[in-house]
Design a protein that fits this description.
The chain is an alpha/beta fold. It has helices at residues 28-37, 52-64, 86-100, 138-150, 164-171, 194-202, 232-241, 245-254, 267-272, 283-290; strands spanning 4-6, 12-14, 16-19, 42-44, 74-79, 107-110, 157-160, 182-186, 206-210, 259-262. The chain is built from 10 helices and 10 strands. It starts with a strand and ends in a 26-residue tail after the last helix.
Length: 316
């Protein structure tokens, strides 16, 4: 059995998941099948990744072949920013469920606290290339998400890319029905997020780390950006345990009781990223890795920097 973190609704979220952002069209279903065949039970997706139909195809193939039952899987999706107006939330979730061909998802996250103008465009922008806000308030969006739980479309709801003040705003909202079950954030040794993780855990909110390897294939990467997979400290620790740098970077999270999702389309890497539980990093090595922090974000969401709800202007 793969270790899990427990959400406050009692659900167990496997601590390692397959990410599907930027998974190559035509290869997504295959990646999902390889992952499930290799033991993964947690699949992370989102509307904005524009590949949920393929994710669904992979999941269904495995269910039909008897490899897994639906209840063995933990499927995550995310509400995109152009559906924050409360009346749009249910339709967005139903579209995701239709694409995935599922009756429910286990966890549905608000992808960003930032509401944007609804319509066909994923990033609606004006003539100055600034994104167009929809003037919504994420607290109202949250109420609409709570209804999805009551209506059985999702088992739990959470947030992603929220700062502490924004999570506090939800927790302190009058009439709150369900608190966030999870906050999915960028996290790796260059952005260790210690304060955010401690805060979330103190409130009974689980944390999932995305970009654990520093997302070297992100489209806006520049040659000056630091590269985690080539970091001398990480390489030395990997050699010491006879593991790959990726395995060390992912194990780092699981030892902090943080769930971790990594994307790969390469079958050998998908399997390798899952082989994390036959070794343990020493306390000294954990401390060394934490010491690499430089508060560097690979995902600064610059497109939203002028939005009233831009999350990354605070300490955490």
């Amino acid at each position: 059995m793969i270790p899990a973190v427990t959400l406050y609704n009692g659900a167990k979220m496997p601590i390692v998941g397959l990410g599907t952002w930027r998974a190559e069209p035509g290869k997504v279903a295959e990646s999902v099948k390889v992952a499930i065949s290799s033991g993964y039970r947690h699949i992370d997706g989102a509307f904005v990744y524009e590949n949920e139909e393929e994710v669904g195809a992979g999941v269904h193939a495995m269910i039909e072949q008897g490899v897994v039952k639906r209840e063995d899987l933990f499927i995550v999706s995310k509400l995109w920013c152009t559906f924050h107006v409360p009346s749009l939330v249910r339709g967005a979730c139903e579209k995701t469920l239709k694409d995935l061909k599922l009756d429910y998802v286990d966890l549905y996250l608000m992808h960003f606290p930032v509401g944007m103008q609804s319509g066909e465009k994923i990033f609606p922008s004006d003539e100055n290339n600034e994104i167009i806000s929809d003037d919504s308030c994420f607290l109202d969006t949250w109420e609409a998400m709570e209804k999805l739980v009551d209506d059985g479309l999702v088992k739990a709801i959470g947030v992603s890319n929220f700062n502490k003040d924004q999570i506090e705003a939800i927790l302190n909202k009058p009439g709150l029905k369900y608190k966030p079950a999870n906050n999915q954030i960028e996290c790796h040794p260059y952005l260790t997020q210690e304060k955010m993780i401690n805060y979330c855990h103190s409130k009974g909110i689980t944390v999932t780390a995305f970009s654990p390897l520093g997302s070297p294939d992100r489209p806006w990467a520049s040659s000056d950006d630091p590269c985690l997979l080539e970091d001398a400290t990480i390489l030395a620790i990997a050699k010491k345990y006879n593991k790959t740098p990726a395995q060390v970077l992912m194990r780092f999270h699981t030892q902090r009781k943080v769930a971790v999702i990594a994307k790969s389309a390469t079958p050998s890497r998908i399997k390798e990223n899952f082989q994390l539980f036959d070794f343990e990093l020493s306390q000294g090595d954990m401390k060394t890795i934490l010491g690499l922090n430089k508060n560097w974000r690979g995902f600064p969401a610059k497109w939203a920097v002028k939005h009233k709800d831009y999350p990354f202007n605070t300490e955490y």
